[in-house]
Structure formats: structure tokens, C-alpha cells
Design goal:
Radius of gyration: 22 Å
Shape: elongated
Number of helices: 8
Oligomer: single chain
Number of strands: 24
Number of domains: 2
Distance between the termini: 32 Å
CATH architecture of the largest domain: Alpha-Beta Barrel
Largest sheet: 6 strands, parallel
């Protein structure tokens, strides 16, 4: 079983608590992204049929698989992610990754990360066979399975000398880059989830961009880059998976397409604290919404997502109902044709979806909706909905 030290668990819990904004005495949890972990080996509860069920659930319920680069770009630069992002990781490079999981990912247009311990690439051990370098290169070239480091020998780093640990961390990166032409290895998963601050420094010095643990928690923008948690889904039924990744707490979709609310990973709040208040009244979409008293326009909420399928979409906005709402709240929509502003009366139609207009959105740029506090009353920032309408997305599927 993978494990993390109690000290690491305390650290990540503290980080999660710190990753909440205090807004006028109220707590608003930051946007979060699930990073999941499983092992393609039967002793961990793996079966191809179970993984197929898990992938089908994700595909059919609006989830988009992302890469570690996309996750880190979101964390570091606020780069928009696709709707309902999820990062899938697999540890130990067991041969079913190549034989079974890879074809399933390709068939569904999905992607994942394979963390390999490099000494055992292509080697049969007591726990099973492992993918060889040619197989890893094939998966990498397809873009569906990216190989990253799980050290050289899958040893508990906390039991090693600094010299040994350094060799495990830096040596595995060198091996991957030497055996996979053109590959730059940027990520490492700690074996058994065991590490300390010295190993974090070693990862930084070796040139890794981030490292992953086995702590069961979500990832926030504020998560330490070399302590990214992963939610274990070994042997998890679809029902258990739904709970683990937070699906059961998501508000229902109003129809085809995708929504972004104020707690979505693709929602950016400026300033991050002290200006916007969290409210639960007025029929918000989901658990709550944000409000802000009239201001100069320097405070704003932005919803921006990477477009999975280009086409024409109807864009709706939702705000919470209250008597002090602005009558001239301005939404700014960035689309393929430029930027359009729409002024709405938020004293009317609160707690329901209101059509802002219809525009073309493409994968060349994020779909963006923004609302600021430049208004004559309190502004409510709750959620937006993109509904596909053009022939280019007639056979629309949730991603």
C-alpha cells in the first residue's frame, strides 16, 4: 500500500485550511482540481473492466483529462483549464498500462501520466511485468500516456542517505531523458508517498517542476508545488469515484454544455480577499455565490475555460436575488470575434439563468466572461453557462 507520513498529512491539511479565503468574516474555499492515482495491477484491485467504467463515467459526465503541465500552468499563471479538469496518474509502470489502459484512453480521447521506476523498465519482477522503453515511447508519442519519474528503484527515500536519495531522484530523470529522445522529464512521484524537505530541495535542484505525493486531498493554486496530493482510486467503484473527486457535490447542469460557478477551478476572483463576500441566499447555483458593493471596476470575477470543441454557444449568466442589486451590471464576453459587453439589471430574474447572447468560441483562445464592481449597486457573481447551438457541435458530448 502507498502511504504518507503523518507529518506530511498534517502539512497538507494545514495547507488546505490555509487555502481558504476569509471574506468579510466568511470562508470561501478555493477552486480545486482532483488528481487521482491508481496502479494497473490486480493486487491493488485493478481490472480493465473497472477502469473502463471509471473512464466512461468521467467522459460522460463532463470531465476533461489534463496534463501535469496544464495543472502547473493553472497553478502558476492562472491559465484556464477545460471544464471539469482532472489529472489521472498511474504508478509503477505495470504492463497493463501499455496493454489495456493506453488503448482505452486513446479510444476515449483521454490522457494520463505513467510514473515509472527506471531500473525496472521492461523488467519482470515478483509484482509483474513492466513496460519497456519502446512501449513507453509509443505511448508518449500518442500523447495519451506521458511517462514521468517514480525514482530509479522505488525505494523509500526517507530510509536512504542523501547521496542515495539524490541518485534516485536525479538518476531516474536522466534515464528517462536518455531513453526517450526529445523527452524532458519534469515530474516525480515519491515512492510510498515518503519524503521530507531535503527531497523537495533535491527535486528542485534536479530540474523537476513539481512532485506528487499519496495524500488524499484536492489540489489548489496554493498547494506546494513539490507536495501535490493525489486521491487514491485503486479498486474504486464508480459510486466511490464520484464521491472521491467531488462529483456528488457539484450542482446539476441546466442542460447541454458546461457551467462555471464561483468555486470552479476556472473562476478567478480579484482581489483574492477582502472585497468579495460569499452569500448563500438568493438561490445561488451550487452552495453559494459572490457579491461586491459598487466600486471602480478594479474588482472583478472572471470565468475562463479552455474550449474543447469549437462552435457557436449561447452564454447565460446567473446572479442571486436581492433588493440592493445593481441595475447596470456589465458582463464582458471574450469570444472568437472579439469582446462584447452586455448590461443587465440584476434586480430582476435573480436565481435563474439569463441569456447574454450567442457567440463563436474556438480552441484558439479561452472562452471568457467577466463581471466587475463598476455598477450602481451590489454586483452578484454566481455562475455562467455555455450551451452549444451550432451545427459544428450538433453531436455534442460532455467532456
Amino acid at each position: 500500500m502507498k502511504r504518507a507520513s503523518w507529518q506530511r498529512w498534517q502539512s497538507i491539511v494545514l495547507c488546505t485550511l490555509v487555502a481558504a479565503f476569509i471574506l468579510r468574516g466568511e470562508v470561501r474555499t478555493q477552486a480545486q482540481v482532483p488528481v487521482v492515482l491508481f496502479h494497473a495491477q490486480s493486487s491493488f484491485g485493478y481490472s480493465a473492466s473497472l477502469v473502463a467504467q471509471q473512464l466512461d463515467f468521467l467522459k460522460n459526465n463532463g470531465y476533461n483529462t489534463i496534463t501535469p503541465d496544464e495543472l502547473l500552468d493553472w497553478m502558476d499563471y492562472d491559465t484556464p483549464l477545460p471544464p471539469r479538469p482532472i489529472l489521472i496518474t498511474m504508478d509503477d509502470n505495470y504492463i497493463p498500462v501499455y496493454d489495456e489502459v493506453w488503448p482505452m484512453l486513446v479510444a476515449r480521447g483521454m490522457k494520463a501520466v505513467n510514473f515509472a521506476h527506471t531500473t525496472y523498465v521492461g523488467v519482470v519482477t515478483g509484482s509483474g511485468d513492466h513496460g519497456d522503453w519502446l512501449e513507453l515511447q509509443q505511448m508518449e508519442t500518442s500523447g495519451a500516456v506521458l511517462t514521468e519519474s517514480h525514482t530509479k528503484n522505488h525505494l523509500n527515500l526517507t530510509t536512504l542517505s542523501n547521496t542515495q536519495a539524490q541518485d534516485e531522484i536525479a538518476g531516474s530523470k536522466a534515464a528517462i531523458e536518455a531513453n526517450m529522445p526529445g523527452k524532458v522529464c519534469r515530474y516525480l512521484a515519491y515512492p510510498y508517498g515518503a519524503y521530507n524537505s531535503t527531497h523537495v530541495t533535491m527535486c528542485q535542484n534536479a530540474g523537476y517542476r513539481a512532485a506528487f505525493t499519496t495524500v488524499n486531498a484536492f489540489t489548489y493554486r496554493t498547494t506546494p508545488r513539490y507536495e501535490i496530493p493525489r486521491i487514491g482510486i485503486d479498486g474504486a467503484s464508480v459510486a466511490t469515484l464520484q464521491t472521491k473527486i467531488g462529483y456528488t457535490s457539484l450542482p446539476p447542469l441546466p442542460g447541454n454544455g458546461w457551467t462555471l460557478d464561483n468555486t470552479d477551478p476556472n473562476c478567478t476572483v480579484v482581489p483574492t480577499s477582502g472585497a468579495w463576500s460569499t452569500v448563500t441566499t438568493g438561490s445561488p447555483y451550487g452552495a453559494n455565490a459572490l457579491t461586491k458593493a459598487a466600486g471602480t471596476g478594479s474588482a472583478y470575477v472572471r470565468w475562463a475555460a479552455k474550449v474543447v470543441q469549437s462552435g457557436s454557444y449561447r452564454v447565460y449568466a446567473r446572479w442571486t436575488a436581492a433588493l440592493d442589486r445593481a441595475t447596470n451590471a456589465v458582463y464582458q464576453i471574450t469570444h472568437a470575434g472579439g469582446v462584447t459587453t452586455v448590461t443587465v439589471n440584476q434586480q430582476a430574474n435573480g436565481g435563474q439563468w439569463n441569456l447574454l447572447g450567442q457567440w463563436l468560441f474556438t480552441s484558439a483562445q479561452p472562452a471568457e466572461v467577466r463581471i466587475s464592481d463598476a455598477a450602481n449597486g451590489t454586483v452578484s457573481a454566481d455562475a455562467v453557462w455555455f450551451e452549444p447551438v451550432s451545427s459544428r457541435v450538433e453531436n455534442y458530448e460532455l467532456y
